[in-house]
Amino acid sequence: MPSDSGKRSGRRARHAQRAAKPVIDPCPPGQTGGAFKPLTHPEIEQIYETALRLLDSLGMGNVPDRLATDLRAAGAQPGEQDRLLFPRRMVEHAIHTAAQTFTFHGRDKTRSIQVGGDRVFFGTGGAAVQTLDMDTGLYRPSTLIDLHDFTRLQDTLANVSWFTRCCVATDLPDVFDLDVNTVYALVRNTTKPVATSFTLAQHVAPIVEMLDLVAGGPGDFSKRPFLKAHISPVISPLRYGEDAVDVVYECIAHNIPMSCITAAQAGATAPATLAGFLAQSLAETLASLVMVNTIRPGFPMVFSNWPFIVDLRTGSFAGGSGETAILNAASAQITNWLGLPSGVAASMTDAKAIDAQYGAEKGMTSLAAALAGGNLIYESSGMTASLLGASFEAFVLDNEMHSHTYRALRGIEVSEENLGFDAICQSVLGDGHFLGSAHTYAAMERDYFYPAIADRDAPRTWEMAGATDAWSAARDKAKEVLATHYPTYLTKAQDAEIRRRFRILT
């Protein structure tokens, strides 16, 4: 009979094996999406044709003079009320000349991602003005220190493939200070691809000077840009926003890739019907594409058609709704049909606490977007409270949720080895089970994801270990990372020079 100590050592070995990083990651980022197709091919064509009709007959209003000149030279026609009309051939020329894929660079080349095609990546977005405090469990205004801490935390999370500033430093009233210190927080604390917003066009050039210091010297950032701009140049319904258009021109001049985001709201700034919403929102995002490709054909732009839903009873945002899930999936499907790099928004829970509502809404909306093949899924990590809040615990939990989603996207590999005919025969004629067999061990390493936060213990074991809930476990993990992970991604010389030239407030 084996001794008790032998049993204990064997159990410890099994626990150690389960805790160890797998030899093969069973669910890395960049899995293939597109299996979920909420729209039929004729339905996509109907939506597309309606979008083209809108641009041809209504066109765009509030077109800034500089852009109007460029658009007229490219074929835009005058319309009623000083609007510019986009003929079909003009729009389709933009689609055909647009970048279909591009590299979203990380300063660490191993962290770069290829945007476009059928690959799915989760990342962040958002401009949360509140942070869920880990000590009180309540919301407070977001600060610059929070942004640094969020950036440090996500730097350790493998499934956040790029980091857009997730919160606004509300303690910085000056907008130039805000833009500068936001970018500084990003480059100081991560080497992943990063993204930000520019409040005004005149902020772009000086911030590029900072990025050049980080990249190695004057002009080096533009040669391999590791920061992307988030811009909303179209204001629904169907008009341009002058300040954002100015930012577009400046970003193109400095070779900053961009996500041109359309954020119409169903029943408020777009039709309440889902089909009508998709048609208008598609037209508006195509207007951004026409603008970018008129200024510089083939410039890297993420076609970021983000359907937003409001609760028509109250007017409040409903980011965790079933309508949000299906609309973002449909948006990804349409963009992929056009052959353009797709960006959608998901995991925008309306829950304030890290609770059952949070889990249900995030899981449903992010899985739908991924299955539909959204190339870049924004807002998918850390966001709470209908995008008003950001949470450290949410980052940890969402990172684990994305592993499950990537595993679902990976699907089932059918091969002679995986069908396991010989293994079945051996187990049936031998031990009568598959525990401990070479076939099982190989599958354990290759095919299964083992969560670190989710609890799979029996109730009694869970109770004896302290009956910890997911919120608490994620909080402990976040605090552990923030207490230990202080990356040094800027040299002392780089940091000193940045501080000499800019007003850095941390």
Features:
single chain, four-stranded mixed beta sheet, globular, eight-stranded parallel beta sheet, 12% strand, alpha/beta, disordered N terminus, 506 residues
Can you characterise this structure?
- The structure is a single chain.
- This protein has a domain at 95-410: Trimethylamine methyltransferase-like (TIM Barrel).
- Mean pLDDT is 94; it is low at 1-11 and 14-20.
- The protein contains 19 helices and 20 strands.
- It is of the alpha/beta class and 506 residues long.
- Strand 19 (383-384) and strand 20 (389-391) form a beta hairpin.
- The protein has helices at 4-19, 41-57, 65-73, 88-97, 144-154, 175-189, 204-215, 220-223, 242-253, 274-295, 322-338, 356-371, 392-410, 416-419, 421-429, 438-447, 459-464, 470-484, 492-501, and strands spanning 77-78, 84-85, 101-104, 113-116, 121-122, 130-132, 139-141, 163-164, 194-196, 227-231, 234-235, 239-240, 258-262, 265-266, 301-305, 308-309, 342-345, 376-378, 383-384, 389-391.
- It has an eight-stranded parallel β-sheet.
Q: Tell me what portion of residues adopts beta-strand conformation.
A: 5-15%
Count of DSSP H/I helices: 19
Radius of gyration: 25 Å
Name given to the CATH architecture of the domain at 95-410: Alpha-Beta Barrel
Mean pLDDT value:
94
Count every beta strand, where a strand is a DSSP E run of 2 or more residues.
20
Within CATH, the superfamily of the domain at 95-410 carries the name: Trimethylamine methyltransferase-like
Q: Largest sheet, if any?
A: 8 strands, parallel
Helix content: 40-55%
CATH topology of the domain at 95-410: TIM Barrel
Order of strands across the main sheet:
5-18-17-15-13-10-9-8
Q: What is the terminal separation in angstroms? A: 64 Å
**Low-confidence segments, ≥5 residues, pLDDT <50?**
1-11, 14-20
- CATH secondary-structure class of the domain at 95-410: Alpha Beta
Global geometry: globular
Structural class: alpha/beta
